[in-house]
Structures are given as structure tokens and as C-alpha cells.
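Two folds, back to back.
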Amino acid sequence: MTKLYLEAFSGISGDMFIGALLDLGIDFKAFKDQLARLHISGYELTAERVAHSSIYGTNFDTVLAIAGKDDAPVSAEEAHAHHHHGPHRHLKDITELIDKSDLSAAVKRHSIAVFTDIAQAEAKVHHMSLNDVHFHEVGALDSIVDIVGAFVALELLDVDEVHCSEIADGSGFIKVAHGVMPVPVPAVMQMRVGTSIPVRQETNVRTELVTPTGMGIVKEIVSEFGTVPEDWEIQGVGYGFGNRKIPQFNALRVLKCKKKI
């Protein structure tokens, strides 16, 4: 079985996580074939090996056919928020979509757990019932691919244990369609309630580094925070790049490990 260690020195998002696991050697066609079991359309997946600061890694992206320039979310937080105009999906709709898919029981269970966690945080932040929380169509489709894709990737790598470093987030405020939001963004901060997840704010980074999807994945899979366990042997290193321009190297580094014999 495979162990993973996440080095979140520039935060974590769903696409960074998937990019890092693809960079570790997951077959992209096998990954896409598994995601096709969702039986949804309107998107195309890309995975490109590129160099940032002369370091090669993978840039994973979901290109949405339904996303026009006016629909593109300003931030990951806003993509989840309930106040968009236009088509949207409630948590119940997304849960049913995942349940009716041909994905494995484990991928379904973990994916629904993350979506529920995000929706509960949104409900608390925006003072509404869980049933009233809805995801804008563009943000919902992107989130479905990122969240379900994360657990598909973990299954393809045969991962049974994940540890993580302290997680870096940005600071300041970000502009969204209806005003400004503080960083960490409200949903992420709410998702941290009742946890002991170590988060360090980078005062020189004036944007979000941890998305609700990224925090949801961390909460669902990470069993311990700290350094790489002494009885783990590193077998591979993968980099998943983020899309934001920040002063530091913007990637999630993931170490593929096995327990020493």
C-alpha cells in the first residue's frame, strides 16, 4: 500500500492535489476513464507537464464548456457560494449524481462527505439551512470533478495513509462579485472549527491559498500533521501547480512513500 505526505507550503486546492498525484505517475487515460463513470458532460480535462522556477510538475485543469467569460468565478470561495445567479445545484442533487454513478463505493462515500462538509460550512457562514445551500452550475461542475477526481486518483495509487505538513494560506482580502472576503475565506475558516489542523498565514501573499475543496480533501484523508514519519521511505515526488501568481513557488508537493521493512 502507498503512503502520501503532503507538503502544503503554498496551500492546497483540488486541482493542485490531482496535478501532484498525476505527476507521481497516474495514467491520465485511466484517470479520465474512471471519472467518466460519473456520466456527466460539459467539461474537458487537461494535464500538462510544465516548469515553474525550472522545476517540472503537472498543471491539471478542468475546462468547462458551459463557462463563459461572465460566469468564471473570481475565487474558489465564490465558486461555492450560494449567491450566484443562473443555473445551480443543491447538495441533494450532487449527492444523487454521485450515488447513481458507477464509481467505487469508497470514492462515492469520500466525495459525498467532502461536499457535505463544504455545504455545512456555507450554511453556517450564510445563515441558511443545509437544504437551501446551492452551488452555481459552473462552480458545481468544477468542484465535482476536483473532489471526485481526488478520490479516484487516491484509489488508482492504492493509498492507505496520508500525512501532511503545516498548511500555508494567504492573508488580506479578496474581491468577489458582491464585495470583499477575508482570507482565509469564510467557508475554509468555518471548516476548521473543531479541528487542530495547523495553518500558517503568509503575510506577503494577498490572496487565498487554501480553497474549500482543498480543505475538505485534507479533512477527509489526512490522519496526522507533522514531518515525514521516520519509518517511511520516499519513493517519488510529485508537484501539482496552482494557477495564481504569488511571490513564492506555487505548488503542492506530494511525496509517495512506503513503510520501511
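---
second:
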Amino acid sequence: MKRRTLDIVFSFGGLALAGLLLILGLVMANQANFAETYVKDQLGQQKITFTPVVGLTAEEKKATCLVDNAGKALLTGKQAECYANEYIGLHVTEINDGKTYSQTSTEARAKKAEADAAKASGAANAGVLAGESAALTGKTDALFRGETLRGLLLTSYGFSIFGERAGQAGFVAFAAALVLLLASLAGFAHAFTKQADHEILSGK
């Protein structure tokens, strides 16, 4: 087999692989653009704006991202992560001494049962217990809303990360396609040189 034949075979194979990588790169780039646009649109519909610097508490100012995004609209996955963890996360822990929705809900049910029993028996502290029960119910509702919004924002952040990874994969695919294209063109160029007339793999 002449070197020219081998050059042409490998060059066509390289072109085919470059084409496949180009298609893969286009698909990944499209997915990255879709994820970025989708996240931006969904977050934009929430109309969330970061608190201006002057409105941040001393504790909130400890979070660099809250200071950096102060006064800005929440539109990106990275901003969603910041708002969810540093802002909502902080205030959720302040609602009931760091207790979660599940813990507070259990506490609220127990307090309601205690208040109902006190009311039924005509206990002197029935009014106090009813007030404590109502307060815990309010905290439960606040925790539910806070943890739900935090979860949704973190989901948006996760979706944006997948988009970023798709964009990176697309870039690698484009780069690999370019390398294969150049190698294939070099192979075609070599196939029409005098050196390509040499016999290789002849078995002689």
C-alpha cells in the first residue's frame, strides 16, 4: 500500500470525526444557550432584587456576593445560589433558632395539641398556649415558604451549572474538531507529495 493511500484514508477518517465533533459542539453550545436563557427568563419572572448595600445588615455584609450584587436584579444561576444560601439561608435560620421546617412543624403540632387540651380543660394558661401555638404555626409557614424558594433557586443554579458544563464540552468539541480538520488537511497535502509514493505495509 502506498503512503498516499494511507494518507487519504486517514484524512477522510479525520474529516468524518471532525464533522461529528462539530455537530456535537453545536448541540452542546445550543444546550448551553438554552440553559442560560431559560434560567434568566425563569428568574426574571420572579422579579427578585438584591437588597442595596445601605439596607444590608452587618451579618449580611459578611457575604461578599450579597455586597457585590447589592441592588441588582437576580437573573443568573450564580446569583440564585448566592441569594438562596447567603440571604434566604441566613434568614431561615433566624426564624426559629436554626430549626428546620420539619422540626418546627413537629413542634407546632405538639404545641397545638397542648393548647387544645388546655382549652378543653379550661386551664388558666390556655390563652398563653394558644398564642404560642399560633406563633409556631406562623414560623412553620414562614419556614415552608423560605425553604421552598431556596430550593427552587438552588434548582435554577444547578440547571445553570449543567448549561455551563455543556458550553465547556462544546468548546472542547470545537477545538478537537479544528485539530482533526487541520491534521486531515495536512494529510491530504502530504498525499500529493513525492514522499507519498513510497510503499508501506507491503509485507515485503
